[in-house]
Amino acid sequence: MTNPLLTPSPLEYGLPPFSTVTPAHFEEAIEAGLSEQLAEIRAVAGNPAAPTFQNTAVEMERSGRLLGRASASFFTLVSADASEEIRALETKLAPRFSAHQDEIFLNRDLYGRFAAIDTSGCDAEGARLVEEYLKEFRQAGIQLDAAGQERLRAINAELARLGTDFGQRVKEGMKSGALLIEDRAELAGLPDDEVAAAAEAARAAGHDGKFLLTLLQPGNQPALAALGNRDVRRRLFEASVGRGSGGGALDVTGLARTMAGLRAEKAALLGFANYAELVVDLQTAPSFDSVQAMLDRLAPAAVRNADAEARVLAEAAGHPLEPWDWAYYSAKVRRERHQVDEHAIRPYFELERVLADGVFFAATSLYGITFHERTDLAGYHPDVRVWEVRNADGSGLGLFLGDYYQRESKRGGAWMNSLVDQSALLDARPVVINTLNISKPPAGEPALLTLDEVRTVFHEFGHALHGLFSDVTYPKLSGTAVPRDFVEYPSQVNEMWIMWPEVLANYARHHETGEPLPAGIVDGLESSRLWGEGFATTEYLGAALLDLAWHVLGPDDVPQDAIAFEAKALAAAGLAHPLIPPRYRTGYFQHIFAGAGYAAGYYSYIWSEVLDAETVDWFTEQGGLTRANGERFRRELLSRGNSRDPLESFRILRGREARLEPLLKRRGLE
Predict the structure, then answer these.
(1) How far apart are CA 318 and CA 535, in angstroms?
(2) Positions of the chain with pLDDT lower than 50, given as ranges
């Protein structure tokens, strides 16, 4: 059979023909793509003509199309539907991809051509393209001598191997850490549909008649807020936060230590004080010190708020609190003080309605785009749905794929990725995916979401809009290819529509009766907005500062005991709260150790939230959910990708520099 990846997809928008692709096809196409692009690069680097923008930068952008097609599809499966064959292939190919990047960006002839390009005749996007390439060459180590480059290649290959191993072990750790419950009575307090989902998960795992509480990626598991049995809460909590650090084959702390040491050595080779300095050099933050100063400013206020919440919870509990008690009594206080029971309101948040009448409705109201489900187009798994997205004038914008349910072959968490990046140069329209891990209900039953899951659906769709609305020439600058500490900003802005009255009234309806979410509950959600912010901010900052602690180490400073180091780092940051572990502990911190691109950059969520809080204020001041506001946000920010300085896009939208005060107010940290 002809390998379907070796030629452009015949499907609309270039959607990969997943139904006809096998793991062997991936390996063949990726190996061919690696060879093909290196040949293209050698042709560019060896061109005897004087370097110009067209014969160097533009030809670079045209290279690697086969590799791009094959790798985008492959890594989608690695994250979302990995078979044993796919996992084995990932392990095999990870060092190959690393070596490939080094072959390109340590090519002195190629660098010399880019450095010689006269950009005075280029438009702004072309000049930025050259600037971004030169920056990438420098970050890759083009300035090093032969011995330095050789060591850097070895470090990169080893980091690729270790990151792959880390991610695969964490995925297995989530699976093996799931809590098996024998007796239905032990699940008292858990809503019936969640009990049914736990029974179905147990049946699928070969435990008929029992109940399996599967784990989500963050340490704090949603079921902790509902389970009345304190011992079950304890067992679930300990299974969650103990992942990856208890010894045995799935312990990843040794991998984390080795990766931290290699990253420190890499930073030193490249002339940086530490890996965090190297990473921040590519971000919108002006310096590592500015990032550290912001987090240090927020931490004491967050802990004060958390301590105040803890006193209220201890009073509600009537006994000393343990970490596994927090979510349960926090939910109790929210019910009693604000008449909000987050589990009881789940029937008003049915997935299908949240999507069609919430997420899509808000996007149509703002941008005029419409969504048309394409059952004739298939994704990589039966649960994946495909929508064609059209502009207000009916023209095709791109494809949106939604993959919402949890399964064993999928890694934890939620994310957006692209199968096809928009590019005018390549005449490519975007194909983007949102992937979540919502518990799949039994056949015929609705998927009812928690408010936090609703937030995740809106958040990830904000990333999708960033990819769909991209309107740039060059693929390197397309969509979400912006600095890491900017990429979360558009997705966080999209969360504002969750509680916007017009949107909420449209989607928050009881899945059986169609009745709207009662006004009293809406008022309670608003009045309780700041309740729990102390916990949430402390939990997040713990992870952000733990990330930085791992990445300010020198090559000789890597600790022998990762867990002791974690405790020491949190204490030094003032975040060693006895009741609030960081959102991600070292043993399952995929963002920073499994190739997700957030190493020394997990701070970006709150850094981006400064811009987000300002933009929410801007939307509100300008009248909210209007086409005029949507068109301006699309034109000045979402469509720009990295074709101009992202902070310049923000300044043009807002009319000034960002200020910290809106964020402090939002999180109750004034």
Answers:
(1) 20
(2) none
